Amino acid sequence: MIHPHAQLKFVNGTIGLGVYASAPIPKGTIVYAADPFEIEITPRQFEVLSDFFKEIAEKYSYIDSRGVRIMSWDLAKYVNHSCDPNTMSTGYGFEIAIKDIAKGEQITDEYGLLNIENEIPLACRCQNCRKVLRPTDIDTYYPIWDTIIKDALDNIRKVPQPLWSLIGKQTKSDLIYYLRTKKRYKSVYTLKYVKTEKQRTARMLSEAATVPI
Ligand SMILES: [Zn+2]
User: What is the CA(109)–ligand 1 centre distance, in A?
Assistant: First the structure.
């Protein structure tokens, strides 16, 4: 579910629809959290879809760390990518505003954290645009993204959180522990879907090397 201060608008003929803030959303606000109505499509369910529905699923869903496609029932599925986004997925599962979002500003997200399967040419034309989204972007940029998210997390208890009730008990507990101690931060790298045991081991080693305990 997306933050209640979100509305759908037409962006342009190339991009299509986008989601805009209908009121200011301060940095540190949880902007998206999965809820019980999300449609979940497992890899096996995706495989047997016709090309028509595969295309819809690819356009409107993200892939979580289990490899399951999550397609939101609400406006969340229309949020566009930007290489200079104002929200970002966190290792805690929800998305957070990484800067203050003004009323009327488009809400954008970093698709590099959504386990895209193929390269996607970009039409965002933002400053420092990467031009192409790559499945390996998370490997390249996760340390930078973690720094940005840690900064936003510092605001999480200072701003209104209308989606707080959607956050699970364990996640809240992990988050509160991190905020209190600055230890056991959950990196965005944990969002990466790793298919094989070898890849899972490499990720665990990488986390152990980068996440302070
Ligand atoms: Zn860009």
Answer: 11
Which segments of 61-196 does DSSP mark as H helices, in order? 137-153, 169-181
Alpha-carbon distance 182 to 142, whole Å? Answer: 18
- pLDDT, tens only, 52-71: 999 999 999 999 999 999 99
Q: Tally Cβ neighbours within 10 Å of residue 37.
A: 9
| pTM for the predicted model, two decimal places | 0.91
Q: What is the distance in A from the centroid of ligand 1 to the CA of 5?
A: 24
d(CA 79, CA 60): 9
Tell me how far the alpha carbon of residue 180 lies from the centroid of ligand 1, in angstroms: 35
